[in-house]
Structures are given as C-alpha cells and as structure tokens.
Write a structure and sequence with these properties.
Elements: H1 4-33, H2 43-56, H3 63-80
Length: 82
C-alpha cells in the first residue's frame, strides 16, 4: 500500500480518466448542435446551465470552483459550434 498522498493522487488520476471521458461525450453532443441552432450563443440557456450546475453542488464552499469550471465549459462549447 502506498502513502496517503500517493493513494489520493491515484484516486484523482482515476477521476480524471472518468472526467475526460464525460467531457469528450458532452463535447461530441455539443458539436452536433451546431447545425440545429440559428445562433451559437443563447445567453438564457447558458445562464440556466450555470445555475443548474451550481444547484447540483451541495457543498457551498465548492460552488465557486464548480461555477468557474462550468463557465469555461460553456465557453469551450460555444467555440466547438463555430
């Protein structure tokens, strides 16, 4: 068995694999939206996505970090639809 630090890093590495897979899946769906929308940017939809993401986080101390990640996710999603 490794050190507690090594174990936590191993856990993070495993989560990163799952997260990367989910991001690829999400971005693939996002890319397919490009031909279905008149406008790439929909501020109301983007605000709803950000609000929903914040609501999914029960630990209020983590909400700002999750919100920052989701803002970048929305930005990158927009770029993929260009």
């Amino acid at each position: 068995m490794g050190t507690p630090l090594a174990e936590k890093r191993k856990q993070i590495d495993a989560l990163d694999v799952r997260l990367a897979g989910l991001l690829v899946e999400r971005f693939s769906v996002v890319r397919s939206l490009a031909g279905l929308k008149n406008k790439i940017r929909d501020p109301r939809r983007e605000a709803a996505v950000l609000k929903r993401a914040a609501g999914l986080v029960k630990d209020k101390t983590l909400r700002p970090a999750v919100a920052a990640v989701y803002r970048e996710l929305v930005k990158q999603s927009r770029l993929l639809q260009l």
